[in-house]
Amino acid sequence: MALRWPEPHEHVKKLTTDTVWTASHPQLSTLELLRDCGDDIADDVILHWREQPNGSVFEAFHTAFVDNADDVPKAYARLRTATTTVPCWVDWNLVAQGQAVFWRYCIPILQARVLLVVDGWSIHNDAS
């Protein structure tokens, strides 16, 4: 079955929303390129899950990630490595600057909000 794509100025109705398709909407040709893209690591984990009996998926996942065991399936080991390794593009100077901004401004803001909430609560209770 071929995928039908709306033309510009065509009305597309989904449930209660009526959208007029414009030339700014993505074209089918650009989205077709994404059809073959995927996440090999996640695909391997899902294939491994499908092979497991019901109930054992959580235990295996827990063993791989929480217990940090070494004797886990290769798919889990690859996913654990991919999700627990800091990417090379992380700029630690920007992280440090963000932390400095947080500690300088966020704590006073949070304190002010707490005081406003407490003060508002006490005013509300005094009135009743």
Descriptive overview:
The chain has 128 residues and is mainly alpha-helical. It folds into 2 domains: 11-84, no CATH class; 91-119. Helices cover 58% and strands 6% of the residues. The protein has 5 helices and 2 strands. A two-stranded antiparallel sheet has the order 1-2. Strand 1 and strand 2 form a beta hairpin. Helix 2 runs antiparallel to helix 4 (74-84). The longest helix has 36 residues, at 92-127. It is extended, with a radius of gyration of 26 Å. The N and C termini lie far apart (68 Å). The relative contact order is 0.06. The mean pLDDT is 82.
How are the SSEs placed, and which strands pair?
Layout: E1 11-14, E2 17-20, H1 28-32, H2 40-51, H3 56-65, H4 74-84, H5 92-127
Antiparallel strand pairs: 1-2
Helix pairs in contact: 2-4
